[in-house]
Each structure stands twice: as structure tokens, then as C-alpha cells.
Amino acid sequence: MTARSPYQNLPPQAFWRSAIVEQSEAALDHLFVPKFALTHETTLMTAGSCFAQHMHRALSNAGWNVLQAEPMADIVPRKLAAKYGYGIYSARYGNLYTARQFRQLIQEALGETPLSLLVWQREGRYFDALRPSIEPDGYDTAHDVKRARIEHITAVRALLQRAECIIFTLGLTECWEDTNTGLALPTAPGTIAGDYDEASVTFRNFTYPEVLADLELARDTLRAHGLGAKILLTVSPVPLTATATGTHIGTATTYSKSVLRAVCGHLVQTDPDFDYFPSYEIITTPVVGGPFFAPNLRHPSPTGVDVVIGLFAAAFMDNAPAVATEANTAPPQDDDEDGDEGDVQCEEILLEAFRQ
Amino acid sequence: MTRVAIIGNSHVGALRDADSAIKSAFPTLEVTYFALARHRFNNAQYGEGGIFRADIPDEAERKSVIEINGMTEIDLHDYTHILVIGQGFLFNGLYTLIAQHNILGLTDTGQTRSISQALLRDTMVLRIRGFGNRIARKFHDDPRFVIAQKPFPCLLHDAATNHATTAAHPDAAHIGDLLRTTIADQMARHPVGFLPAPDALLSGPLHTKPEFSRAAMLPANQPPSPSDYTHVNARYGFELFKIFANQWLGLVPVISPQTEKV
User: Fold this and answer.
1) Buried b (16+ CB within 10 A) or exposed e, A215-253
2) Would you say residue B43 lies in a domain?
3) What's the whole-model pTM score?
């Protein structure tokens, strides 16, 4: 009688040697097998930690139907618009590092919670504490912060109503909460604006159950409002910049990424509304020839981002857009823009003047 | 004789219309004109030898350029100064941005979307700086060149343009000041000269006085078109040239019946 093993007849993707060392094409095809279909017509919303900016830009440039709820006019140079938080995600919410921020934004946009108005100051300028980087020098008044937030939340509501798939990149588990309101903040006060005061903020390092609950509640809130968007999760491969846990940055990073990745794994296995795209594995491990880090050993290299987007497109191969549209989205910077509005007769004017 | 070339786009027409007045008022000057349609002017090249040459792709357009100028290029190497007329500094895009947004901190215009004054200011600086860099580079940073700002349009009551919306903004004076300061600051960085739209010819922060419009001097039987409000007439051309002649050549006009006729 021949001895049998449960690994005996497994496919190439199940083995490190064939899948990773030998980079078997057949194995690569199984790196990401989507649970739900995306086509070039599927309306996508992007959000998340800073790696999500790469996703947003690459998907937009590749012709996916990435929504833009707060577009900025093409006449504003793209880099300047990005400095003010335009065009880096589907709306101007800045980085949403944690599942708590994601859930909080959805609840606020859909009216489950009141307008989250938390204003920080720096040198006489006013900042929206929930997205302090979107106005680099802040606003003139707290009233301006409120006006801008109302417009933003209105735009996010419209965005959620249109989105068929939300691509959300989880960044980390560490977070500062405003003690009075319980609102999760993207940065500690004192980093971009505001003043750090131990009594005003509370440090949190979210656990697996908390992250899971936040993501499920975000989805439940969408469903309660009749919104059917699927949620495609990724985990940012970018390590933490700093940790407030008192532990080493290396182990703190591993904790954050492990919790986030484990939650994604659970949701993929148990919940039809969630899927997971392995950008974390692609960038940080040798799974497809990586790791792909820039020389600062923190940010993904351009090659790595290309690999991520290439595999994303390949997974939806039959439905992916055929043509990149970088050129189509480039803002016009032509001096010809400077004609007179409604001007159709300029040459006639010249002819008249010079005929005299 | 001091030789002055006046080159540019359709706005050269106002100075060309004032030619006899200019020549009477400044008899020591020899003035030559060279004008191209806006897109053709933007594409024209100023070569190392001092030749400013239009890039003309087809015969029909070539005929048109020759009909206007008698030539398709001009040798600028021995002109004392070259006045470059009708440069817009990408203001139209700024008018669009202002017309389509509520500017936080300024009077609410009822737009559904807002932008901060900081973003407006940064956009102004970047665009005007970019335009200034390009035009200065186009003329090799040669200080003989003086870049004249395109005239502001004259008021046309039912105009539904972004300029009209911006000019009607309750804080148009502040916006106008911001534009004027930005353009002056940016052009001061270049060796080429800069001639702004003269304040004395304006009826408001962003409007030229109606009497300086082309429409104001059209024959009675010629109904004005929108272009006749965005283009100015010989009186404006003459006034602009007087400022140029005074600032760059140190000349004052000789008063004669001809100059008074303009």
C-alpha cells in the first residue's frame, strides 16, 4: 500500500519552489483570483493609506473607471492640485490610514453621525483635524474649515452612492483619537497642526477584533443605505514611519501589517462583500520577483507599483481597459488657451488694421 | 532714427490703427509692425540670428500672413526695442477657476464648490510664472524685448464669459490687485521688459474703459461682434505706445493735429 499525503496532488501555486523559486506562470495566475468581477465600466472609489495614492494614479492612468467626486479644474497644474489633496483619491479626504477612519467617514457621509468638525490651529491658521494636510497652510478661519468640510462630506456621499467597488488600502493599526469626540485622527496633534496635550488625545493600537468590526460596520452602513458597493481590500506595503507603542519600529510594523492582513484573510474567507488584492505580498516578498522597495527601504519602487497594477489588470484580464489614458488626463498648459473668450474673428481684425 | 518693432497677435491691430498718430507724435522713430494670428504667433520661432519667423504649414495661411505683413518673417537684430503685444499670461484659466468656485474668505458667490485663497494664489503664481518663463525664453531673455499684457476686455453687458463673471465678482478689486501684483512680481524676474495694461485705461479692476473698445470706433453701419469688445482701438494703442516710448525710450509725444485726431 502506497503512503499518501494531503500535499501529494496539489497544484504548483501551493509550493514555494514552483510558485516562487521557479516563478511558474501557472502559479502566478493563482496569486489573485477575484471573487467579484470588475470591468472598465465598474465605478471604483479609492481610499486608504498612502500606498492607495499609487493605486489611484495607476488605475486612473490605465483607464479604469476611477471616480473623482472633487475634481480640480485642469488649469491647476496637477502637482499643485495634489498638494491641496485634489486628484490623489476619489475625494479630498487625504490619507485614511485605519479601518476606524474609513468607517467614520462612511458614517459621517451617510448621516449616521453628525458633521465631524474638529479644528486645529497653527500660527493663526485653521485646519480640519480629520484631513489636516489638504490645505498645506490651513484656512483663514474656522468657518472656512466648516464650509469646506460640508462640501467635502456632500461630495463623499455622492461618491458612495455611485461607487460599485471601493478599493480600500489599510495602512496601520496605530491611531490617535480625540478624547472629547472619540474621532480617529490621521495624525497626532502637533505633527501638522494643533498642539499635543496628553489629555486631549488618546493613543490606540487597534486589535484584530476592532479592525474587523470597523470594516464590517462600514459595509453594514453602506447596506443600510441601500448601497451595494463591494469592498476590495489591500494592505499597504509601506512600513510605519514611527510607532508610539514603545516597541521597536520593526516589530510595531509587523504587528500592524499582521493584524490588517489577518482581518483581510478572514473577510475573504467568510464574507462575500470583501475581497483582498495582495499588493502587500507583491511589494514586500519574493512572490513575483520582489521585494520592490525604493532606496529608502520604505516606499515601493516604480517597478513594484507597475507589477502590482499589471497583476491587478491581469486578474481582470478579459475586462480590463485596453488603452492607457495618461495623455488624456494631462492638463492643457498651452498658450493657445489664452485667446479671447468667444473670439472667432481675430484674424479679421488684423487684416482690417493692416489693409489701411 | 531709432527703430522699434511692434510684434504680436491680433491685438497689434490697435497700434497699427494708431500708426499715423504714433509716427506724428514720435518723428524720431521708425516703427515696423509684424502680426500673426494668436496660435501662429505662439508657434513662431525667434532664431539666434535675430529672425522671428512664422511656422506656416500651408499655402493658404502663408498667403494670409503675407497679405497682413508682406512677409513671413522679420529680422529684429538691429531694432532698438521690440514691443510684444497682446500677451495674456493664461488669465483665461484663472477666470474659469474663479467663476466656477466660491473663494473662501471672499464674498460668497453661491457656487457649490469652494477653493481656498491659497490655492487660487498658488495657481496664479505657477501659471503666470510659467508663461513669463516661456515668453522670456522665447525671446532669449533679450532686454530689447518688452512684453505687453493683453488689454482687459471692455464691458459687454450680456456677456456670459468667465471673464465677465470674474469681473462682476463682489471682490473683483481684490482679485485684480492679486493678478497685477503677481504678474509684476513674476515678470520682474526676467531681463525682458514688461508693460502692464495701463490703470488709466481701465473702467474697473478687470475692464478696459468702453471708449477704448474697437466697438466704439466702428463705422455706424458695422455692428460690433464680441471680438470688438475684447479688442481695443487706435486710441488705446496710441496711449499704450506713449507709455512704452516714455518708459523705455525716454520720449514724450510731439502734439500735432494728427495725434489729437486719434
Assistant:
1) bbbbbebbeeeebebbbbbbbbbbbbeebebeeeeeebb
2) yes
3) 0.89
User: Grid coordinates representing A153?
Assistant: 462630506
CA distances from A338 to A42, A289, B38, B182 (A): 37, 49, 9, 17
List pLDDT tens digits, range A25-78: 878 888 999 999 999 899 999 999 989 999 999 999 989 999 999 999 999 999
Give the 3-state secondary structure of residue A44. strand
- Tell me which chain A residues have a C-beta less than 8 angstroms from the C-beta of B100: 73
- Among chain B residues, the shortest Cα distance to A82 is held by B119
A2 within some domain: no
Measure A181 CA to nearest chain B CA, in Å. 27
Could you count the other beta carbons within 10 Å of the beta carbon of residue A203?
13
Which residues on adjacent β-strands are paired with residue B224? none
Which residues, other chains included, contact B250 with Cβ-Cβ below 8 Å and sequence gap of 6+? none
Q: What is the pLDDT of residues B133-178, one digit of tens each?
A: 999 999 999 999 999 999 999 987 667 899 999 999 999 999 999 9
What's the mean per-residue pLDDT of chain A?
90
Phi, psi at A241, each rounded to 5°: -75, -40
State how far the alpha carbon of B130 is from the alpha carbons of A149, A218, B161, B180, B201, in Å: 32, 45, 24, 16, 27
Selecting from B14, B96, B104 the residue whose C-beta is nearest the C-beta of A148 gives B104
Tally the domains of chain B.
Answer: 1
Assess A124–B contact: CB distance below 8 Å, yes or no: no
Contact between A350 and B12 using a beta-carbon 8 Å cutoff: yes
Question: Which one of B95, B112, B227 has the shortest CB-CB distance to A344?
Answer: B227
The enclosing domain of B77 has a CATH number of 3.40.50
Which residue range(s) make up the domain with A48? 21-326
Collect all residues of chain B within an 8 Å Cβ-Cβ radius of residue A148.
Answer: 104, 114, 116
Round the CA-based radius of gyration of chain B to a whole number and report it: 19
The residue among B150, B163, B217, B230 with the most chain A CBs within 10 A of its CB, best to mutate, is: B230
pLDDT at A22: 87
Does the beta-carbon distance from A148 to B231 stay under 8 Å?
Answer: no
Number of cross-chain residue pairs from A and B with Cβ atoms under 8 Å apart: 141
Does some domain include residue B112? Answer: no
> What is residue A25's predicted lDDT score, i.e. its pLDDT?
80
CA-based nearest residue in chain A for residue B17: A353
Establish if A178 belongs to a structural domain: yes
DSSP state of A337: G
Q: What is the number of structural domains in chain A? A: 1
